[in-house]
Amino acid sequence: MSQMMELNKVNFVVVDVETTGLYPQSEAITEIAMYKICDKKIVDKWCTLINPEKSIPLFITLKTGISDAMVFDKPTASQIAPKILEFIGDSVFVAHNADFDFGFVNSALNKSGIKNLTNSVVCTVKLARIFLPHLPKKNLDYVSNAFGIKTENRHRADSDAHTTAIVLIKFLDIWEKENGIKNLDEFLKLQKHPATRKYF
Question: Taking residues 154-175, what's their average pLDDT?
Answer without folding.
Answer: 96
